[in-house]
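Hi everyone, sorry if this is the wrong subforum. Our group has a chain we'd like a structural model of before ordering constructs, and none of us has done structure prediction before. Sequence below.
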Amino acid sequence: MQERKQQGAPLCERAAGEFWAAEMSRRQFLRAGLTLVAVGLAAPPWLAHIAHADAQRLRKGEQLPNDHILVVLQLTGGNDGLNTIVPYRDELYYRARPTLAIPESQVVPLDERLGLHPALEPLKALYDQRALAILQNVGYPNPNRSHFRSMEIWQTADPDGYSRYGWLGKYLDTLTDAAANPVMAISFTQELPLALHSKRAQVPCFASLADLQMMTRDPELENTLKSLAEADERKMDSPATVVRQSTRTALQAMEYLRERVRGYQSQAQYGNDPFARGLQQAAQMIATAPHTRVLYVSVNGFDTHAGQATTHQRLLSQFAGAVRAFYSELQTLGKADKTLLMVFSEFGRRVNENGSMGTDHGAAAPMFLIGGRVKGGLHGDPPDLRGLDGNNDLRMQLDFRRVYATVLEWLGGDPEAVLGKGFAPIPVV
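Answer:
Right subforum, don't worry. Here is the predicted structure as tokens:
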């Protein structure tokens, strides 16, 4: 090993040599994920760079970044919280919603006051396992009812400003190796969510793994990578060099992901809907891409101004089925304790139904945290229908940035560095 190092062995082999030189234990070596089998002799430069960085951390006596995973599921359009977690013993709920209220006989009870919409019955088992935490009345001060602005607030964690960068993008920027790891975060969306916009880290964005397969099936890919590598070797000193290197890394990352997921078969039965496709693909990444830490899924359709009952029933049924399959797969993979699923929407709906058998834009609403390490159950008081705000909306009891602080701690991040000020994490994970 030492002789090959002197002759210019690949970086991943040099990193391994440094481990042995430091007389590190086999357990530490495997924890770092730097065996030649794991990294591969033909590892792309960015992957070898991560291996080298981990080796340096351990040589200095520092801890490696944790291996926790965050999956964000965005319910776009404004999910009706009152018909999701139903205050089935509150007469004001039934007065406010003479046609849309869920009959008490159909509610899936969670306690003596609150229960699940009947379409969410598949989640009751997760609740009983204490793997589902329901956070009540989540929002932010001075709520905004614009879809665009409220989603911007949630994604930047900046209710008072207009940040260019998202809260997860800011988190990635606090990591010394995030810019070097092009698969640290992945978004299964048509466009990159503002939540993942950052100064340094580049996040791949594609609607589906099928799109990834198509992008990397181009016979010109190998020639493109070869030409980019040759251009870098000539060390051309021009602004185009950075672009070439960035493009090469992105193409290598896509090829890496394609190879990782190509032969994987899902370990659970998923439906054929946006929730199922998104979470199934997240599970594939969790199973096959160990350097990915953040996955983002978004599903539209929750803006239920008219004819809400049928639409909401369908969406919640698909959501519950997909989450149940996803968690089952995590358990099979042994990843349930390492993964946290966070579910949010940009706002809830108004307490009173409108004249079109729907509900209009509201304010506070519940959030879900799902995983093997959450403290499951109901957190917070039931919605207070007797103490509405000046716009007859539910009052916020829990600032969403406290939930983010909890999630950031789970990821091993510094909440204050990301959120700009201190928000006390919730003791729920």
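For your construct planning: The first strand starts at residue 69 and ends at 75. Residues 1-41, 238-243 have pLDDT under 50 and may be disordered.
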